[in-house]
Amino acid sequence: MTKPEVKCEPKKRVNIVSLQLVKESSLLYGPRRITNTRLAYELFAPYLKEKDREHLYVVGLNTKKEPTFLNLTSIGTINQAIAVPRDILKPAILANSASIIVAHCHPSGDTAASYADIAFSENLRKACKLLQIDLVDHLIIGCSTDKYSSLKEQGYLKSED
Q: Which parts form a coiled-coil structure per UniProt (predicted)?
């Protein structure tokens, strides 16, 4: 009696990994807490005011609304910045953020929210809710101007599903 031949597949190697946030630099933020739209604008404006393409940043906040990180998430074209919730929320999760604020610039200087801006914010809000991270606001900052708009203040960030 002969044994049936058993074919063994090679074993799959699985990587054991850890993730960490890497601090590239830091900045001093005078007010310490972001409690309103103007303070959020003042944090983002130096990074978004003189751009020739859309840039999207995210800031993470702790439970006291103190900023804990600022991350450039996307550099786009003259009229769009492609970003997905996964890319925005990754640093927020790694930094153990309670909430986030996102901001992007419009090189045209026009701070009106486009349909794409509104849809993006709604998708991000839903993703944040699943991860129990509060989306505080989404700002649109006009390049080469002192103008900005808040999607929250305009009623686009609704808390219900």
A: none
* Integer Cα distance of 61 and 98 in angstroms: 6
Spatial CB neighbours of 67, under 8 Å, sequence gap ≥ 6: 29, 34, 43, 59, 60, 61
Bridge partners, residue 59, by sequence? 70, 101
CATH label, 37-150, candidates 3.40.50.2020, 1.10.10.10, 3.20.20.70, 3.40.140.10: 3.40.140.10
Residues 6 or more apart whose CB falls under 8 angstroms from that of 55 comprise 47, 48, 72, 74, 75, 76, 81, 104, 105
- Which residue ranges of the chain lie beneath pLDDT 70? 1, 159-161
pLDDT one-digit tens code per residue, 89-117: 999 999 999 999 999 999 999 999 999 99
What is the C-alpha to C-alpha distance for residues 143 and 54, in angstroms, rounded to an integer? 9
